[in-house]
């Protein structure tokens, strides 16, 4: 009987491994992405979305000071963008599409025009 049980255990393990692999591949296909560029000396435009090519309209995109105060609260427009006036204080941009779907962009990483 051990010979009969051993192959079924192997099949069960293989099935579980395939099932877990399928879940992890699905999770990896939907990573958050956000890019911010200076339009000019005064304005910054951020575009958010996901690695599967989908946009992120309505997703929260806040501009936050280094002291953790929200300088510009925002949500991405229908075209998954938000343009805002560059704050005078040091800041970072927080794209927050929910747990595990967060991107932070420091002001130093924002491309110049």
TrEMBL record:
<feature type="signal peptide">
    <location>
        <begin position="1"/>
        <end position="29"/>
    </location>
</feature>
<keyword id="KW-0732">Signal</keyword>
<protein>
    <recommendedName>
        <fullName>Secreted protein</fullName>
    </recommendedName>
</protein>
């Amino acid at each position: 009987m051990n010979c009969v049980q051993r192959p079924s255990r192997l099949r069960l393990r293989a099935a579980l491994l395939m099932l877990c692999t399928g879940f992890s591949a699905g999770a990896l296909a939907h990573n958050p992405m956000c890019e911010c560029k200076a339009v000019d000396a005064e304005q910054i435009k951020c575009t958010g979305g996901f690695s599967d090519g989908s946009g992120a309209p309505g997703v929260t995109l806040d501009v936050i000071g280094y002291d953790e105060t929200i300088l510009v609260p925002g949500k991405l427009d229908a075209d998954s963008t938000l343009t805002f006036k560059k704050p005078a204080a040091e800041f970072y941009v927080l794209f927050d599409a929910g747990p595990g779907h967060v991107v932070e962009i420091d002001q130093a990483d924002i491309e110049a025009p």
